[in-house]
Amino acid sequence: MGRKATTAMMRIAIAGAGGFASLLAQELSRSAYAILVLSRRAHPEFEANYDCQVAVVDYSNLEDLQFTLEGVDLVISTISGAEQLNLIDAARRARVRCFVPSEFEGALSRRPAPGTDPFDNDSSTALEQLRHWSQPRQHSMRYTVFSCGIFYERFAPGGLQACNMGINCRIRNQGDYMIDVGLGIAEIPEANPQGRPVYVVMTSAVDVARFVAAAVELGIDNWPREFRMRGTRLTTQRLHEICSEVRGVEFEVVTRPYDEIVQWLRYYEQNRDEAKWYTMQHLLQTANGRYTFGEANLNDAVDVQPTSFRQWLYDTWGPAQ
Question: Which residues lie closer than 8 Å to 42 by C-beta, 6 or more apart?
Fold first, then answer.
């Protein structure tokens, strides 16, 4: 699909310089766009490996942020918390046309209500700011959320941390989320609150970057409020079965009924065991359908063929030795 005339000379800023930001820079640098990477420190490897510029920024300095973003058309954020809130404010002051927040995992409609989300980290505040600044006015700023379910890399050797991702989340290490592929163990929710199988949508970080780059080619002025993409959709039962099949070993699996997950949450909260509380909270959120959705409108709109979870797992782990 050809590039729209309105995007031919766009300037795109990527906020952050972690593993996912690197993938975005790699994909977007294949285009004719001017790519600017915002980071708290210098990253000469970005400029050496990709056709982009790196700007060292202080996210607490709104004036400098605004100056850095002057002339930028699209901001893609991979940062969160107060830093992202300041970035949003600076972007709208710099009259950025469109903002993509760091909201990649989990569809918007499947998240808990604001004030009740244990993984919020100022996410609801960021989305509320974006809704406010997107309202019709002389210089409104559009925004679009890209939802991918969860990253395959949660199940990578070493977990998200080894991929230089998930700095501010609590499931960075191998085995923190449901399955430790290396050790061959799993702890999964048995069913959702209605007693039905629990589904998850998953996509590799590489494919998410490819999807975002392909969406830019469509022209950012016509983007919907949310783009959903999908690499694989399966049940948690099938998820651990595939891990076992690819590795060629029988996994030790603990299956938690929904009521039991709720009881363990109360227990860990009473005993102030924060680490185990968050682990169980991830099971609850998964059982509640936070990471699943039906229609993947971005899959339908662009020519990207994502890698299946089975293939990714085989390429990443392979059979056990």
Answer: 54, 56
Overall average pLDDT of the 206-224 stretch: 96
Read off φ and ψ for residue 49, nearest 5 degrees. -90, -30
> What are the pLDDT digits (tens) for 89-142?
999 999 999 999 999 888 888 888 888 888 888 889 999 999 999 987 778 899
- For the question of whether the overall pTM of this predicted structure is more than 0.85, the answer is yes
Beta bridge partner(s), residue 73: none
Q: Which helix (H) or strand (E) holds 239?
A: helix 236-247
**Cβ-contact 62, 68 below 8 angstroms:** no
